[in-house]
Amino acid sequence: MKIILLTDVRGIGKKNDVKNVSDGYARNFLLPQKLAKVADEQNLGELSSIKKNDRATEERLNRLAKLLSEREFQFRLKVDKKGAVFGSVNKDEILKGLRDTGLITKDRVEVKISKPLKELGAHEAEAHLPKGIVAKLKIKIEAE
């Protein structure tokens, strides 16, 4: 029986894959557990539009990652007379800076840095976008 997987199934395939499995396995396990649906013409048509939307979303995310990588994000921290920095820039502040640009609105983004940034100068961070796309961020910390 030809089926479309609705979720990743170990040993069979990933979500939205079209696979041939035995009739009994499909009827007794995959279909009742809502792990798959029968691959008829209507469901294959729906799958085609889903894959088209996924490709469009992935292209949009790749363009977004490129824009984020080309841009430099600046933060200002207070500094005493000797040059010691008060405070730091953390993940939440970087994420707020990303959202303030208007480029990221509804996408779920996770910013990764090894530790809060406490020194003046240039730093790098990563923005993890959906679908496993990663953007390298350039962060510049200046004295206020």
Q: If you had to describe this structure to a student in words, what would you say it looks like?
A:
With 144 residues, the protein is α+β, with helices and mostly antiparallel strands. The strands form two sheets. The chain has a five-stranded mixed β-sheet. Strands 2-1-3 form a three-stranded antiparallel β-sheet, with helices on one face. The protein folds into two domains: 57 residues, Ribosomal Protein L9, domain 1 (3-Layer(aba) Sandwich); 83 residues, Ribosomal protein L9, C-terminal domain (Ribosomal Protein L9, domain 2), CATH 3.10.430.100. It is built from three helices and eight strands, in the order E-E-H-E-H-E-E-H-E-E-E. The mean pLDDT is 91. A hairpin with a 5-residue loop joins strand 4 and strand 5.
Structure at a glance:
It is built from three helices and eight strands; from the N terminus they run E-E-H-E-H-E-E-H-E-E-E. It is of the alpha+beta class.
